[in-house]
Amino acid sequence: MDKIIIKGKSSLSGSLNVHGSKNATLPILVSSLLNLNDLILTNFPNVDDTKNMLKLLNSFGVKINKDKNKYIINSFELKNITADYDIVRKMRASILILGPLLSRFGYAKISLPGGCAIGTRPIDIHLEGLSKLGASFKIENGFVIGKVDEFLVGTLIELPFPSVGATENIIMASVLAKGETTIKNAAMEPEIEDLCICLNSMGANIQGFGTSTININGVAKLYKSNHKIVSDRIVAGTYIIAAVMLNSRFEIKNLNPNHLVSLIDTLKIMGANIHIKKSSIIVDKSYKLQSAKITTLPYPGFPTDLQAQIMALMCLVNGNSVIKETIFENRFMHVPELNRLGAKIKVIKDTAYIKGNQTFKAAQVMASDLRASVSLILAGLCAEGETTINRVYHLDRGYEPIEKMLSGLGPDIRREKK
Ligand code: EPZ
Question: For position 301, which CATH number holds?
């Protein structure tokens, strides 16, 4: 298993371009199953989760061609449509294939995704919503098997919680259904907007995405389309926090600042010196930052996927901070590792209490999940001495090689392949 070694304390200078969004690419790739014509994607993130999704689709018989920076996806001929445990357990987003397969074939057999480091990750909201459209499910030998007697029929679906994945699954199942579907209490994340923009470019008829009420009018078929994937707001936010932690003037390019309002507002309240441009953000040197109290919430609230990263920053600021995690039940796996690097954080139930005015000191640490791993990288960049982060395969799921992204920009960071 690869490890990353950082010789801190680092600085950052210059700029970097943020890559396409993993969490937009995954549902968009799956949506190609609804289309018998080519789907051409650009700004495609080269991360392990998207590579795994391409492998899964390829195992179904989907044709995938790469032409320079374009991916051409064609799902006209499909052979197998069962998603096996070994792929699904590595990538929970595989559950998103339920909607399109039920829509196209009236049948789907997918290994239950199971839990992961951050929580049990149930799929009840997905199954309830798809059942309302006319699917029926049974759980057998660790698989969820879905069937549709005739065809899916549009209806009103009120989500008990604005689940991102369930919203995406229901949207995709509704695109070719008979009649109109209205999803209330829908998730509003930019990745869902990007999925709907892509589906509409194929000929779907979706309104209201980006709000909590989404309307989908079923259409007969979809057509060839080109789509540029939206920039990854979580990767962008990660590098913004890195620049603030390293107190460096640095520009993060190729992003939509409107997707990061909650993070930017929080950093500004803490005293960070941030300038917003049309498609980039400049972080400048700032004086002693102050502590903050944040609660993670569904979009547009503070994103749970940036919780570990801002926690690393909070160790360095003046005063004590508090983070309440409301989205996942076990998303503080980075705390013991940050404490090994010199942080003083304690967790009581769903809340972390972070002591400020600390300094990070190099140590060996272990990554546990995607975003926890990157918070250890951020701390390592600020730590005196040589920090080693083990099991960085977690990181590679959602970040293009971070040591390449940062090389030549100041940090002494390298990867040791095992
Ligand atoms: C998506 O996961 C993202 N993954 C996650 O990013 C992100 O943290 C999460 O949304 C929240 O923003 C992808 O888009 C591939 P949810 P998802 O359904 O869809 C509970 C990363 O680091 N829930 O909104 O699984 C669930 O247990 C990953 O890139 C149910 O109870 O998130 C969780 O507590 C991590 N029943 C909460 O809702 C369900 O049927 C939020 O889950 C579904 C979800």
Answer: 3.65.10.10
**Tokens for 156?**
């009103």
Cβ(270)–Cβ(245) below 8 Å = no
> Which atom of ligand 1 is found nearest the CA of 370?
22
Please state the atom number of ligand 1 nearest to the C-alpha of residue 120: 27
Q: Tell me the average pLDDT of the chain.
A: 95
Q: What's the one-letter identity of residue 27?
A: P
**Structure confidence at residue 114 as a pLDDT band (50, 70, 90):** low
Do 322 and 214 share a structural domain? Answer: no
Residue of minimum CA distance from atom 8 in ligand 1:
305
Calpha distance 312→368 (Å, rounded): 15
**Same domain, yes or no: 276 and 328:** yes
pLDDT, tens digit, for every residue of 221-263? 999 999 999 999 999 999 999 999 999 999 999 999 999 999 9
Q: Whose CA is nearest to atom 26 of ligand 1?
A: 121
Distance 225 CA to ligand 1 centre (A): 28
Q: What is the whole-number distance in angstroms between the Cα of residue 339 and the centre of ligand 1?
A: 26
Give pTM, 2 decimals: 0.97
Residues designated catalytic: 116
> Once rounded to an integer, what is the mean pLDDT over residues 79-108?
87
Cα distance between residue 150 and residue 154, in whole Å:
13
Residues 136 and 272 in one domain: no
Which residue, of 228, 247, 263, is where some domain finishes?
A: 228
The residue whose two tokens read 């997707």 is 259
